[in-house]
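Marked as duplicate of an earlier ticket. Keeping the data here for the record.
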Amino acid sequence: MNILEVEGLNKHFGGLAATSVVDFHVEAGEIVGLIGPNGAGKTTVFNLVSGALQPDSGVVRFKGTGITGLKPHEIVRMGIARTFQSVKIFSKMSVSENVLLGHLFGRAKGSAASEAARGEIGEILDFVGLAGLKEARAMDLIIANQKRLEVARALATHPDLILLDEVMAGLTPTEVAEAMELVKRIRDRGVTIVMIEHVMKAIMSICDRIIVLHHGVKIAEGTPEEIVSNKTVIEVYLGE
């Protein structure tokens, strides 16, 4: 079953084509990688799927329902969450307060003070490894934990699909390995994942399929084994 379908997605900024007739699908339960050089259009695709930008043309469907033109809060409440390439935490708020905002944003109605909400936030913080830092200010976290906090806030919206935008950028090898395990455990929770990443070890190790963009155009799609041996991908991105 396809949980996400993108057809003919076009977005221009002035004379620049950020995405050009991009087509792909994501099956429920997959981890799909989205790779390509800087400026390839990867984050633009996330912005179009999540409603942060509106396409010039093309269609996005989630669980068979068209979501093109919906606002971000409407898309979140349908079951799509995301993180950001540059972490967008509420720096002066505590870790638990940041996750509480995700909990509330993912619901049309709800009580911030409810026991159920507090219990859920505690469970999510424990899941991502931040239980011991719940009262810390977000700005005081190291970058690896700020990225975990973004993931926790996204999970608090109860997503069926999560878009992870470079959650491993800037991390040490040990932190990358921990982040890879977290991504796999998120999938084990029943959440489908699309991830933008430049850490090839992670992409090649945990993704079921990989989509490659270049200058806004999809140039390849396949298993990690197929992508790593694709001559066009090697030429424009991976290198010899």
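See parent ticket for discussion. The first strand starts at residue 2 and ends at 13.
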